[in-house]
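Today's session is about reading a structure prediction critically. Students often jump straight to the picture, but the first step is always the sequence itself: look for stretches that repeat, for charged clusters, for runs of hydrophobic residues. Only then move on to the predicted structure, which in these notes is written as discrete structure tokens rather than atom positions. Here is the chain we will use throughout the hour.
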Amino acid sequence: MKVLLIGSGGREHALALALAKSPKLTELYIAPGNAGMAGLGQRLDIPVDDIEGLLLFASREQIALTVVGPELPLSLGIVDQFQKARLPIFGPTQAAARLESSKAFAKEVMFSHGVPTAPYFQCQNEAEIVGAMEKLGSPYVIKADGLAAGKGVTVTPDYQTAKEVALSMLSSHKHVVIEGFLAGKELSVLALCDGEKAIPLLAAQDFKRAYDNNEGPNTGGMGAYAPVDWASEALYQDIEKKIFQPIMAAMKARGTPYRGILYAGLMIESKNNSLSPWVIEFNARFGDPETQVIIPLLSVDLLPLLYACAEGTLPQQTGRKEWFTTNTYAVTVTLAAPGYPGTLDTKAQGSPLLLENTLTEDSFLFHAGSKLNAHSQASISGGRILNITGLGSSQSNAQEQAYHLVREVQAKNPLLWCRWDIAGPETSASASALINSA
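Below is the predicted structure for this chain, in token form.
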């Protein structure tokens, strides 16, 4: 099979590594890719939002499967265009991808089909914002109704701050969503979907806040780990029954069946000695950086699974039990550029990345924000630059492996910074209720 992978981040690097290992693969093309993917496939100078260019390439080269990584091309309707051309593609249609591209739409679907989620108001002016805040109370959860690169949410107990943020969001979005605050433990669960059924993968926990102890602003993700030991079999079954099954039925009933990967960002409430899942958000693609810990634990060929999603022929299996290595843990740590997640330091952008081949069987270095400079050398490009993943027989062993490589990379690249408590005993035991994602 010839495969086209669309994207350029750490998520796509992890997917490229898995696809490149498939015995069914004959050629892997990556558009546009990054500096770390050079040895995995042929990179193409086609932007992710150039739908016409991507379609032309896939048609000309007779690509057997196109895999969409980021949310932007999905929101632009790339899947619809490929389906019209009868080209197999992994990802939801533009209408189905609204589960991510419109927070208000996702909320409406959840409420109409009984999926547990926080109460909300969709607001388009100051009066509606004030009314919603007064009804829901503090802490205030403010979300932009649209794509926001993982940074479109603010959680604050301060009324004036919340109001100012909401009004600011209205300047670039038609609506803003004000919703009730959920407390508990955060959990990310991704499911492969073929339009009829959804098969959940291993749960992961990510870390959205910029700094240690879950402080600072939200980011696209500063690290993650998997599996999550406190996620019981009963909880998995609850998530499948109360969340994925109703959403799949809802999307099919609307005439927009969901195919691809569906990411459920959950808050798990502990009450009366039981755990109950509540949906914070949906994403219409692989999570980042969750993919960087889930994919390295995969024990089966990823390519036929993605193809089965696109064709509507997923096998009836329990993915987390049958598709993953047992008794192995993964921890990933994000190395970020100066200024992230705020205004990036322009002097640091373009600086060379000094990376030696120090990887082992238990560690991975995924490029998230890098590009080749004029001297064909990897350089800093963006906010989140590298994802360093370690494997181990326990969560603490995997964490130790990841941070060992982090220190080696930082010694030669002192501009890059990270959190030092990813998958630590305190944060992994009880994720802060303020870690929402968008």
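Discussion point for the tutorial: The domain at 2-93 is CATH 3.40.50.20 (Rossmann fold).
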